[in-house]
Amino acid sequence: MPPTRPLTANRDSASPSNPSPRRSAAATAPQQRRGSPQLQDEQTVRRAQQLRSELGIRVSAGSAAETGEALRRCPIPLVDFAQEQVGARLPEQLLANLEANKLERPTPVQMQTIPCVLQGRHVRGLLARGEVRRHLSWGCDHVARLPVSQVLVSAPTGTGKTAAYLIPAIAQVLLARGAERREEEVLALVLAPIRELAIQIESVAKMLMRGIANMKTALLVGGFPVPTQRYRLRNGVQLIVATPGRFLDIFTNYSSGDGILAAIRTCIVDEVDMMLDVGFRPQISQILALLTNLNGNGVQLLFFSATLSDDVEGMVQQILKNQTEQAYIRVNVGGNNIKGTGTAHVSLNPIAQQQVRWVEDKAKKNELFTFLKGKVEESTVCNYLGLLRGSKVGASMLAEAIVKCCGIGAAAIHADKTQQERLTLLEAFVNMENPVLVSTNILSRGIDLLHVQNVVVYDFPKNLSDYVHLIGRTGRGDSTGNALTLINLEDQEYFGELVPLLRSASVSLPREIYQTLHANGARLRSHTSNIAIDEAKRAFRVRNQLIEGIGAQVSDWKNWNEQLRKRRRVGPKN
């Protein structure tokens, strides 16, 4: 392959989502020798740590000893897409597509994830707290076959996690073509929880693969005919994007699937926290079992999400333990990482300008209408949960009210809409035909609706992770955005976790939130004090009863003893 020229960067200004790395650090970053599985020397490790510190990247592992090993194994961040890493460069056709789409400089999560994947390690990615896992290399000439090491990556929403796994996955396909594999074989699989996200991922993949010979995708999701999707597979593809249910439906209920499954060398699970939290775990385990049974340790597994709870992390570890006994590496990228009482690791996107307003339920509509009237020329996504009862009908009614009261085009999208209706609504929103989109929770994850300028949290989600994902629909990439949260006493169960999260991002909070926390704290202290008093009273009563019982026994003994002495003085009767 001819040498690839460096790409020129038009984004020199630093931003939280894409800080401009210091070229001096990049220039001194040593290139790893081709195929070298050796640990990096201490000087290289220190230099890499300095670069990670500048970029807000943190690498760790389960223990101090494992962290030291992870730092020596973890590749140096990739500060330029054209930079050679772990004995390989991104293919020139892929670099050309990146440049054509203005992706000229990697974001921090891409800087660390891409070399991790190219190095051939298991990667579990958590973006916004992006966590990346690394897996075995494919055994091609360009990548050293290093020991498997799993990686967790976290970074704020909108920082480029889709490209972070698609770029190296596509590069692996192209690099593997010099080996024994046929070009028409499937080499990569992406699993997403909802079809809208899967559709978006496929569109990004097509953008990155445009103009590259024999590079095709297949979309396997519900709402589309199965025969059409099977026909696409039979014609040969290099990347499958699927929802777990449809993937299993096609590959377990129809024949001739083993050949395709045996060719998969990279499996990416996006939004892994949602996948495992809402009941996809059996399906994910079944899919991974199918792949590993056919490919053994040759499958590279990548897990990504914007948030990760301890429970979900434990599930992922258990799943990976069934596939490999290797330790994992954590990579945290940027953001204000908070671990709440609900054990969820969350991180806010600093690009989004956030407002939190205390609004009673009856006044929410007027507050929303006032906000929208000042944003007539801007795109807005508004969530509506309706306390999880009748939310689909309520979302449609709210959209109609926006049209009537604000004179702004608005539409509602929810699970009762057909796939074609959803796509039509999303297209109308992107084209600003309907600049306001009222949604249930189906748009809260991963979907990039092309520069959403405003997000209104009309109903607070059921947990903090969903809230972070929801406001992450705006302020993606280098774009700025606004997030308005309407909150009241009905949401007080989330205040304890919400306050430190928002304060870490310097968000001004309504005084009612602090008053509620203070009142709840006072009630808790009073309740605790009452419990202590009640326990003390109970102990006092028990003690008195015990003393009274002992006193009665002593009195009885004294009376008996006195009677005994009297009987002895009197003596026995004749």
Automatic annotation (TrEMBL):
Pfam families in UniProt: DEAD (PF00270), Helicase_C (PF00271)
Iron-sulfur found in the keyword field: no
Ranges of Low complexity composition bias in the record: 9-34
Domain Helicase ATP-binding: from-to ranges: 142-326
Keywords attached to this entry: ATP-binding, Helicase, Hydrolase, Nucleotide-binding
Compositional bias (Polar residues): 35-44
GO MF annotation list: ATP binding; hydrolase activity; nucleic acid binding; RNA helicase activity
Gene3D superfamilies on file: P-loop containing nucleotide triphosphate hydrolases
Superkingdom: Eukaryota
Residue ranges of domain Helicase C-terminal in the record: 351-517
Disordered: region residues: 1-44
EC number: 3.6.4.13
InterPro entries in UniProt: DEAD/DEAH_box_helicase_dom, DEAD/DEAH_RhlB, Helicase_ATP-bd, Helicase_C-like, P-loop_NTPase
Stored CDD domains: DEADc (cd00268), SF2_C_DEAD (cd18787)
Identification of the protein by name: RNA helicase
Gene source species: Phytophthora fragariaefolia
Record lineage: Eukaryota, Sar, Stramenopiles, Oomycota, Peronosporomycetes
